[in-house]
Amino acid sequence: MINTEWYSIRTLTLPATAVALLMAFVIVWLVLRMQFPKKWSGVYADAILTFILVWKFSVIVTDAKTIMAQPFALLYFNGGTVGVLLAAIAVSLQLLWKKQKLQFDVIGASAYSWAIILTQSIYQWLVVILNDNPTNSEIITLAVLSVLTILILWKVSALNYALFIYTSGLIIVANFQPLGLWQPAVGISVILLIMGLQLQLFVKKFEMKDGC
């Protein structure tokens, strides 16, 4: 979706896409806090913090000249699309690096899968609500992702299939949106899918080893 609106929070002005993402983070954290052990909402909160920090300060990489000339620009700018992708990669590497320490098990893998699917779906829903894009793309986004999310979370028990089905659905929906496949949401979805599959592989190996 294309950002068409800006919202002011006191002295801070944010694009609707950023507002949607922050709201999605809060909502998903609350869901995880209620549905899973406290540990996993904490892991999600750490991932959110990493995402925001990398996205914000990635402007040092994407626009180094401006930052060197005006260091205070760090307060007002971020890494844009490249920064969002770098943030998603950073979160993925962080979780994969800490998977042993965090002792990811079946419950942890389930919490992670819920987090991936709900964060993306709620973000997409809020972007539709907060912006003004072509009506047909908005209807398709809301309808398809709503049905897909409900079916996956309540009917698909195999986590690897759940993530694959959702990512495939999001890619299909993206084709009907103004930016098509060339939007950060698609790239992030693929990155999160790869990380999710890696974590599930780790869980399976851990269970096999523990069962011996």
Short recap of the structure:
This protein is mostly helical. It contains 10 helices and 2 strands.
Key phrases:
mainly alpha, 4% strand, two-stranded antiparallel sheet, 10 helices, 212 residues
Polypeptide structure, described:
There is one protein chain. The protein has helices at 16-35, 38-57, 59-62, 64-69, 80-97, 99-102, 106-130, 135-155, 159-174, 184-211, and strands at residues 6-9, 12-15. The protein is mainly alpha-helical. It has a two-stranded antiparallel sheet with strand order 1-2. Helix 7 runs parallel beside helix 9. The mean pLDDT is 85.
Low-confidence stretches: none
The helix content is over 70%
Label the structural class: mainly alpha
Q: Main sheet: which strands, in order across? A: 1-2
Mean pLDDT: 85
Described by the principal axes of the CA atoms, the overall outline is globular
Task: Estimate the strand proportion.
Answer: under 5%
Element pattern in H and E? EEHHHHHHHHHH
Number of strands: 2
Radius of gyration over all CA atoms, rounded:
18 Å
Tally the helices: what do you get? 10
Q: Say what oligomer this is.
A: single chain
Biggest β-sheet: count, sense, barrel?
A: 2 strands, antiparallel
Give the termini distance in whole angstroms. Answer: 49 Å
